[in-house]
Amino acid sequence: MVNSLAGAAAHALLQVGNVYGGVSYGSAPSGEPQPGLVSIKPPIGRLGAELYGRDAILADLVATATGAAGELVVLHGAGGYGKTAIALGVARRLWRQDPDFRVWWVDASTGPGLVAGLREVALDAGADLEDVLRAWSGDRSAPDLLNRTLADAPGPWLLIIDNADDVRLLAVRGPLGDGTGWIRAPGRSRGTILVTTRENSREAWGPGAVRHEVRPLSPAASAELLNAGSPGAGSSAQALDLAARLGHMPLALHLAGRYLTAVQERPCVPGLRRPRDFDEYGQVFRDRFPEIDRLHRLGAQADERQLLNRTWELSLDLLEDRGLRWARRMLRWLSCFAPAAVPCFLLDARVLAETDLFHGITAEDVEATVAGLITLSLVERAEFVDPRSETATIECVRLHPVIREANRHQTDVRENLPGYLALCLAVLDGLTSGLTFATAAELACWAVVSPHCEHVVARVGQEAGGLRSPLTWELVATQLTCRLARFARLTGAYARSAGQFEAAVDVRRHHLGRWHPEVVALRRELAWLKWEQQPSLAVLDEFAALAEGCRERLGEQDPLTIACLHDVAHLRAQAGVGGRDGASYREVIRLRGQLLGRPDAESVSAQLALVTLLWGEGSDACEDEFGRLLAMIDECERAGPAAWAGGLAPEVLRGHVVALLDRYRSTRDR
């Protein structure tokens, strides 16, 4: 015996034997689309009059659909990139060419909605009603029936599956590429299946799918969209500037234009200031992003996919459902860096796992998490190429500016901002503390992390009032600032280097005092930077004042005092104002000997400079000082490596000094 029931309650049938008392039979709405309430007509009304910047891909997709070669076409890209709009644009062009062209539209954002829509497609494509009822009640294979019906349907036709982000809903059992799911490459049919999705993995869609990546608009198309959506809101240059700030993302541009049009219809009332042009909207986006969705609700309703604070949360929900439990925190953390490519070498699980945010994460987890974020286009892969050396390339990930803003302003980030900032500081400090400037690869590392170091230091300064132990935060941040200053100095960016050194000096002087050794060390570096830019007596006076200040406050035998005195002696000799007897060098040598009780590389360097000075002045004391220099080298060699940090080994240096002495004697004899 076979029972079948048609109608709104076909999913629930009650059959009983003996019934005592009254029986009430009904069906409560489930909240999900039911077959009888689902439309498979493309919602063309969502589109505006024009689809800007998409002519090439529209022409390609229309040609594919009219060619009816049985292709599965996948439009993939991040949420907000306009995939749905492109699919609707294809349907509209097809109908303009041929009003009878069959186009079906199915929303795949939920399982019940997908199944209900595909049932209507099967019926409209010619499947027998009885066969559909049996298949959708579980007596037969609904996916097989659907695909068999589509294969036999006269063409050309186009089936659009929109918002197919969760490929598992389409696959049923096994990978979609197996050809056993709801959608399959049409093959022998005369139709085309077009899917819009955030899932960009080639493996997810199978080898037969033709994949098109949907990217942001061009600057010109972005400005055109803004100007068309909100005429009179600003000049073309202002539209271009706002479009760049919005990362040329179609959703963000559309929402901005729609809002600016709506606000023009509202009166200006005291106590309420709404942005009314491109510049004012851009300021809100930059400075008060959490308010942005409230603006977009002005005069219009929006679902989650149209809210900048929510649309990418749907992708993160999906990744968590797939078992990638670190995905949300990883994206939040990446958004705390600068709006620039983030090098993958910062994603060190050994550092991350030591924090509360990522406690227990492994390198395999990091790899899978980042791959998942890339798969749903929440981040994209990028490659940094150092312009100084094209062979030095670094693998990176990059966030779209709107996705970055949406994530860094989420409530959970604000509530745990110290944790996110501390992790940024930790990975940057750990990397740069051991990074030198010796190779092209290391210079490329400095170039790619520099904007992130500057950004994180600035954020620490901005948030210091809300951080526990701000002294510690700011002092750690100055370590990054100083390293950046040294990198800038090395690359010839003297003005940038000076600004960074001065900023670090200001912070450390504020917390530690003007004559703290760490502050003095930075002031000395800054003075050397000024000398390298433009040697002058004024800078020399600055060195002398620093040396005397150290002598007075730190003592004349403090290593910093002696180093500053050595600087003064060297620069006076270089400027020709050092005196004929080399008294400054003699003082450095004396103080260095009192400090250590023996010669070392620094005192040998001062003695060599003294010899050079006396030779140049024609002093009779030069040969005696040569003898003292050789004796100092011998003593350093006997003391072993602990006493010597010079560039040349003592025995090599001795050979050079002996050769110099011979040359000196030969010149004296003449």
Features:
670 residues, 3-stranded antiparallel sheet, 7% strand, 8 strands, alpha/beta, elongated, 5-stranded parallel sheet
Characterize the structure shown.
This protein has helices at 55-67, 83-97, 111-124, 129-137, 142-152, 168-171, 202-205, 219-229, 236-245, 250-264, 278-287, 292-296, 311-321, 327-334, 349-352, 363-375, 401-408, 411-415, 417-433, 440-463, 470-490, 494-512, 517-533, 537-553, 559-575, 583-596, 601-617, 622-639, 650-669, and strands at 71-76, 102-107, 157-162, 191-197, 209-213, 342-343, 380-385, 393-398. By secondary structure, it is α/β, with parallel strands linked by helices. Strands 2-3-4-1-5 form a five-stranded parallel β-sheet. The longest helix has 24 residues, at 440-463. Residues 6-12 and 19-31 have low confidence and may be disordered.
Summarize the structure.
The protein has 670 residues and is an alpha/beta fold. The chain has 29 helices and eight strands.
Instruction: Work out the number of β strands.
Output: 8
**Strand order of the main beta sheet, please?**
2-3-4-1-5
Strand content: 5-15%
Rounded to the nearest angstrom, the radius of gyration is 36 Å
First-last Cα distance = 128 Å
Which percent bin holds the helix content?
Answer: 55-70%
Give me the number of helical elements.
Answer: 29
Quick one: overall form?
Answer: elongated
Largest sheet: 5 strands, parallel
Rounded mean pLDDT is 88
Structural class: alpha/beta
Low-confidence stretches: 6-12, 19-31
